[in-house]
Specification:
The protein is α/β, with parallel strands linked by helices. It has 4 domains: 1-142 and 182-218, 2-enoyl-CoA Hydratase, Chain A, domain 1, CATH 3.90.226; 144-180 and 225-285, no CATH class; 320-497, 3-Layer(aba) Sandwich (Rossmann fold), CATH 3.40.50.720; 504-635, N-(1-d-carboxylethyl)-l-norvaline Dehydrogenase, domain 2, CATH 1.10.1040.50. It has 27 helices and 18 strands. The strands form 3 sheets. The protein has an 8-stranded mixed β-sheet, sandwiched between helices. Strands 1, 2, 3, 4, 6, 8 and 10 form a 7-stranded mixed β-sheet that branches. Helix 17 (476-488) links the parallel strand 17 and strand 18 (492-497). Helix 13 (351-370) packs antiparallel against helix 14, helix 18 (504-520) packs antiparallel against helix 24 (613-634) and helix 21 runs antiparallel to helix 22. 48% of the residues are buried.
Length: 687
C-alpha cells in the first residue's frame, strides 16, 4: 500500500455575523495512527485550495485545522532520503511558496491547532494571523535540529519574531537537542505560540467563533514586541548547548542559531527565508541528515513492526514476579506494575531490601499522581496488589517472573531452579542479565523452552531499548511473550542471539578496549574522551565508565574475555580500576581530574607513543567495525540495522551518525575494511 497523501479540503460555513468563511482541513484519509505529513503533493494541494479561496471575493476569513487528534506532523521525511542539493532546494522553496500564499491572503486567517503539531506543521500554523490551541493538543515541537536539519519553512524567522529569541531557541535548539523533547498545549500557550487555549469539547466551534469576532471587530488581539535585551546571552547559551550535545559533529544547530539571530536582530524576512532555503539545500543531502532519516525510520517504524517476532500467541500475563528487589529490581517492579496493572510479587532474601523496594515503587506511583498521569485511587489500588516477600512460594501463580539478582551464574541458576519448583510449567522465566549466557542459566531446568533474556537498560524508566535475548531452546510462544511485553512496557524490543554481551555491551566494550589502548600508550583520559566526543557522542569512554561503574565494567570485560579472548584482552589496568572501589575515573569535585590513585596506578606501556585525536577515533571505529562484522557473521543479529537500533536506543549513539554501522558505511570505513557496506539494501530481519 502506498503512503497516504495529504490533501487540503475546503468547505464554506456561513456565519450570521461575519459572512462566508473558508474552513481548510488537512487530511490524509487515515486515522491518527498515520499522522498527516506535508510532501510535494500536499503542498500542491495547499496551493490549489488557496487558489480556490482567493478566487471567491465573498470569503471573509479562513480557518485551518487538521483531522482528529492531528494538526500536521511536518514534512514527509521519506522524500528527503538520498535527495540531491537541487531537489532539496526545490522542495524547501515549494514549501515557502505555498506558505507565503497563506500568509498573504487578504482575509484574516486562524490556525486551530487541534492535535500533534511538529516541524513544518508548526511552521504552517505560524503563517496564519492567529492561532488557537486545544487543551489536549500535542506533542508540539520543532524536531528538525535533532534530525540535523533546521526549520526550513519559515520557522527560524517567524518564531523569534513572535516569541522572542529565548523562547524560539528553546524550541528549536534546546528541546531538539534534549533527546527531541516535545511540549504539550499548556506549555506551548505559555510560550506564546497561540492566542487562545480552548477546551477540546467544542474546540472547533470556539475557534470559528473567535475568527468571526476578529472579522467583525468585536474582538482584537495584540501582542507585545519581543524583549531582546538579553539576545546575546540567549545566543551564547544556545551555542554552548550545541557544543555540549554535538561537539561540532553536525552543522545544523549552528546554522539554525545564526538564522534565529538574523530574525531577532531585525533582519529582512525575505533574506531570512532565503537563508533557510540555502541552509537546507546543504544540510538535507549531507551525511548527518541522511543518517538521521535512516535512524528515524529505524526507531519510529521498523522497530515498532517487530520484524523478529515469531508467529505465535503470547502468554497472557495476569500476575508478575520480580526476584531481586535491589535498585534494578525495584525499577523493573515499578515499570511492570504501572504498565500491566496486575498483581506483582517482589521477592528478595532481605527484608530491609524489600522495605526500600516498597518505598521506591510506591514513590514512583505517588510521583505519577502528582504529575496528573495516574488517578490517586488507582495508585492506592496498585500499591495494594504488590506482595513483598522472602518466600518463593508467594511467586506461585505468576505467569512471568524476571530475575534481577547479582551477575553470577551460580546465583542465577539457583534462582531459576527454585522458581521451577513453585511455578506452573508454562510460566515464563526471564533474566535481566547484561552479558551472561541465558542458555547456561536454563541448562539444568526441566523446561528450558520457557526461558529468555529481557535485558533492560538503566535507568529502566528512561531507556527505550529492550534486548530480547533468544537462547537456542526457547519456544516461539516464549519469544512472542517477550515481544508483547516490550510493547506493553513501551520499550523497543530488538531480538539478539544468546552471545556474550549481546549487542550494546559487546560493542561498547570493544570500543572501550580501543580507547583503553590509547590510555596505555600514555594519552590522558580527558584527551581520549574529548577525541571520542568529536564523533558527536554525548560522553567519552572514561566519563561513561563513571556512569556504568568501574566494577560493572570490569565484570563485563571478564565475560567478554571468556567468550572472545583474542579481541577482548583482560587488561590489567581495567581490572585495577575495579579494585579501587572508586565511583569512577574522575574526581569531579576537582573537575574532570582523575583520582590520584588511578593516575598513580595506571601502567603506561614502556616506549609507547601517545596517539593523535584522529588516530584515537580511527582506532576505536576500526575496532567497532570489526566487532560488528563478527556479530553479523555469527548471527548475533539478523541485520546491521539491528546493531544501529540498539546503539541509538541503548547507548545514546547520535541520530546524525545513524547508529554505528551506517556511520562506518558513510565514512567509507566498511568498504575499506570489508569491501562492502555493513548496511545492505535488503533488511534481512524482515525476511
Amino acid at each position: 500500500m502506498s503512503d497516504p497523501v495529504t490533501t487540503f479540503k475546503v468547505s464554506y460555513p456561513v456565519s450570521p455575523s461575519a459572512g462566508r468563511l473558508a474552513l481548510l482541513t488537512m487530511d490524509n484519509g487515515h486515522d491518527h495512527t498515520k499522522p498527516t505529513t506535508l510532501g510535494v503533493d500536499a503542498l500542491a494541494s495547499l496551493e490549489r485550495a488557496l487558489d480556490e479561496v482567493a478566487a471567491q471575493s465573498d470569503v471573509k476569513g479562513l480557518l485551518l485545522t487538521g483531522k482528529p487528534f492531528v494538526f500536521a506532523a511536518g514534512a514527509d521525511l521519506n522524500q528527503f532520503a538520498d535527495v540531491s542539493p537541487e531537489d532539496a532546494r526545490y522542495g524547501v522553496s515549494a514549501g515557502h511558496d505555498a506558505f507565503r500564499r497563506l500568509a498573504s491572503l487578504e482575509v484574516p486567517t486562524l490556525a486551530a491547532i487541534n492535535g500533534a503539531t511538529l516541524g513544518g506543521g508548526l511552521e504552517l500554523a505560524l503563517h496564519c494571523d492567529y492561532r488557537t490551541l486545544s487543551e489536549t493538543a500535542g506533542p508540539i515541537a520543532f524536531p528538525e535540529v535533532f534530525l540535523s536539519i533546521l526549520p526550513g519553512w519559515g520557522g527560524t524567522q517567524l518564531a523569534p519574531r513572535l516569541l522572542g529569541s529565548r523562547a524560539a531557541l528553546q524550541l528549536i535548539i534546546h528541546n531538539a537537542l534534549s533527546n527531541n523533547r516535545m511540549i504539550q498545549a499548556r506549555e506551548a500557550f505559555d510560550l506564546g505560540l497561540a492566542d487562545r487555549l480552548l477546551a477540546p469539547v467544542d474546540f472547533l466551534e470556539q475557534s470559528l467563533a473567535l475568527l468571526e469576532r476578529l472579522i467583525t471587530g468585536e474582538e482584537t488581539i495584540t501582542r507585545p514586541a519581543p524583549d531582546e535585551r538579553h539576545l546575546d546571552e540567549a545566543l551564547t547559551e544556545a551555542r554552548k548547548v550545541a557544543d555540549d550535545r554535538t561537539h561540532g559533529a553536525t552543522p545544523a544547530p549552528y546554522r539554525a542559531i545564526d538564522l534565529v539571530e538574523h530574525a531577532a536582530r531585525g533582519g529582512d524576512l525575505e533574506e531570512g527565508r532565503q537563508g533557510e532555503i540555502d541552509a537546507m539545500a546543504e544540510l538535507v543531502p549531507a551525511r548527518q541528515a541522511q543518517a538521521s532519516i535512516y535512524a528515524f525510520n529505524l526507531v519510529q517504524s521498523r522497530v515498532r513492526k517487530q520484524p523478529w517476532k515469531p508467529d505465535a500467541e503470547p502468554k497472557r500475563l495476569q500476575r508478575i514476579g520480580v526476584v531481586g528487589a535491589g535498585l534494578m529490581g525495584s525499577q523493573l517492579g515499578a515499570l511492570w506494575l504501572q504498565r500491566y496493572q496486575v498483581p506483582l510479587v517482589m521477592k528478595d532474601l532481605d527484608q530491609e531490601v524489600l522495605a526500600r523496594s516498597q518505598s521506591t515503587i510506591e514513590g514512583e506511583l505517588d510521583k505519577r499522581v502528582q504529575r496528573g498521569r495516574l488517578d490517586a485511587a488507582k495508585a492506592e489500588w496498585l500499591k495494594s496488589v504488590v506482595t513483598y516477600t522472602v518466600d518463593d512460594a508467594d511467586l506461585a501463580g505468576c505467569d512471568l517472573v524476571i530475575e534481577a539478582v547479582v551477575e553470577r551464574m551460580d546465583v542465577k541458576k539457583r534462582v531459576f531452579a527454585d522458581l521451577e519448583r513453585v511455578l506452573a510449567p508454562d510460566a515464563v522465566l526471564a533474566t535481566n542479565t547484561s552479558s551472561l549466557s541465558v542458555a547456561e542459566m536454563a541448562a539444568d531446568l526441566q523446561h528450558p523452552e520457557r526461558v529468555l533474556g529481557l535485558h533492560f537498560f538503566n535507568p529502566v524508566s528512561a531507556m527505550p531499548l529492550l534486548e530480547v535475548v533468544r537462547p537456542p531452546h526457547v519456544s516461539d510462544g516464549t519469544m512472542a511473550t517477550g515481544f508483547a511485553a516490550a510493547k506493553t512496557l513501551r520499550k523497543s524490543g530488538v531480538q539478539v542471539a544468546d552471545a556474550p554481551g549481546f549487542v550494546v555491551n559487546r560493542i561498547l566494550m570493544r570500543f572501550m578496549g580501543a580507547c583503553g589502548d590509547a590510555a596505555n600508550r600514555g594519552n590522558a583520559f580527558a584527551d581520549i574522551d574529548d577525541a571520542i566526543k568529536g564523533l558527536g557522542l554525548p560522553m567519552g569512554p572514561f566519563e561513561l565508565l563513571g556512569l556504568v561503574g568501574l566494577e560493572v565494567g570490569a565484570h563485563v570485560l571478564r565475560v567478554m574475555h571468556e567468550g572472545y579472548p583474542d579481541r577482548f584482552p583482560l587488561d590489567a589496568n581495567f581490572q585495577m580500576l575495579a579494585e579501587t572501589g572508586l565511583p569512577g575515573v574522575y574526581d569531579w569535585d576537582r573537575g574532570r581530574v582523575p583520582y590520584d590513585e588511578i593516575r598513580e596506578r595506571w601502567q603506561v606501556l614502556e616506549g609507547a607513543e601517545p596517539l593523535t585525536p584522529d588516530q584515537i577515533r580511527t582506532q576505536a571505529l576500526e575496532a567497532v567495525a570489526d566487532e560488528a562484522r563478527h556479530m553479523l557473521d555469527e548471527g548475533v543479529v539478523a541485520d546491521a540495522r539491528d546493531i544501529d537500533t540498539c546503539m541509538i536506543l541503548g547507548a545514546g549513539w547520535p541520530f546524525f551518525n545513524g547508529g554505528i554501522c551506517k556511520h562506518l558505511d558513510q565514512i567509507g570505513l566498511s568498504e575499506k575494511l570489508f569491501g562492502e557496506p555493513l548496511v545492505g539494501p535488503h533488511d534481512r530481519a524482515a525476511g
